[in-house]
């Protein structure tokens, strides 16, 4: 009897909370929403966020205002999100580094994604293309592997910073192929790209939108598509897996919408639904496709599972290669 009374009491107490959550979802947002982008303006993450902000502003009838807070490979901005009030009015656009690489290798990171963040929705996945300077005497990935093995430690690769997705994925590829490359880090994507175009560095992983333009202009050579599929704009360039059989290698980066831990589930569901609606619009799909961004949809729970798998994959590569943050 006491157990029954306790259950009825718990149910009675939960009903007001459920009703409050539903009411909150119906009225949210009722004021402007701050959308923190932890990278400088102009990059793929920033442009992705601006497309998202415009669509959410139109759908939810309140301004979603971009706030660029770059620094420390994206962790400064995401830390601001983690420490914000969990009311749905401060959100962040996070990526592979701040979410699924740096938390593994930096014990001093001021936030823990699993403890401090809610994943709201997936925004997009950007496949990389592996490119080489025009003068490098290779035309595809098997030839690069053979050349690198014949010249151990002499083939250089450019990345935007240290311990980011590009370094992690090239080191993973090197591990699978049994080759040793030499890292040349740069402050950002534009400097890393310029170094390969100038012939100062041998190879790099570039976002599809940037890489394909340079390939078609003859400024770099496409050795392989690093994602799981060929690009419709360069269909003759085979994927890395097709050329080598390394099916476990996938070269891409991704973006997510995150919120502070404790943000009401009803608010997260409303945001997730709005993003799904925006991503389904043909004009939005065309904008994202022009940037080489593939949809990364699904419920908040499904995207959380995706991030968990990506984090464990990165952890295995980090353990074997010994990548560390400088």
Automatic annotation (TrEMBL):
Belongs to the UPF0065 (bug) family. Keywords: Signal. It comes from the Bacteria. The keyword Magnesium does not apply. This is Tripartite tricarboxylate transporter substrate binding protein. It comes from Reyranella aquatilis. Residues 1-25 form the signal peptide.
């Amino acid at each position: 009897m006491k157990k029954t009374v306790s259950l009825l009491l718990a149910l009675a107490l939960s009903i007001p909370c459920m009703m409050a959550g539903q009411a909150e979802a119906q009225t949210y947002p009722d004021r402007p929403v701050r959308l923190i982008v932890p990278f400088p303006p102009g990059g793929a993450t920033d442009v992705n966020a601006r497309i998202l902000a415009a669509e959410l502003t139109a759908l939810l009838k309140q301004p979603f205002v971009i706030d660029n807070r770059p620094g420390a490979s994206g962790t400064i901005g995401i830390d601001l999100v983690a420490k914000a009030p969990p009311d749905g009015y401060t959100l962040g656009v996070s990526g592979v580094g701040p979410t699924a690489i740096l938390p593994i290798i930096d014990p001093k990171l001021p936030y823990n994604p699993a403890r401090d963040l809610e994943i709201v929705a997936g925004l997009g996945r950007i496949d990389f293309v592996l490119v080489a300077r025009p003068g490098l005497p290779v035309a595809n990935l098997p030839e690069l592997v053979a050349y690198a093995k014949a010249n151990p430690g002499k083939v250089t690769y450019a990345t935007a910073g240290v311990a980011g997705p590009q370094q992690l994925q090239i080191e993973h590829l090197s591990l699978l192929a049994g080759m040793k490359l030499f890292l040349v880090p740069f402050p950002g994507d534009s400097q890393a790209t310029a170094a390969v175009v100038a012939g100062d560095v041998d190879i790099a992983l570039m976002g599809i939108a940037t890489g394909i333009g340079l390939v078609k202009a003859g400024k770099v050579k496409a050795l392989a598509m690093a994602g799981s599929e060929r690009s419709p704009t360069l269909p003759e360039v085979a994927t890395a897996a097709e050329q080598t059989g390394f099916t476990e290698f996938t070269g891409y980066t991704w973006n997510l919408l995150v919120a502070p831990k404790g943000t009401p589930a009803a608010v997260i569901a409303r945001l997730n639904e709005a993003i799904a609606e925006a991503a389904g619009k043909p004009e939005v799909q065309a904008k994202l496709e022009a940037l080489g961004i593939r949809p990364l949809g699904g419920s908040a729970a499904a995207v959380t599972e995706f991030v968990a798998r990506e984090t464990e994959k990165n952890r295995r590569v980090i353990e074997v290669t010994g990548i560390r943050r400088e």
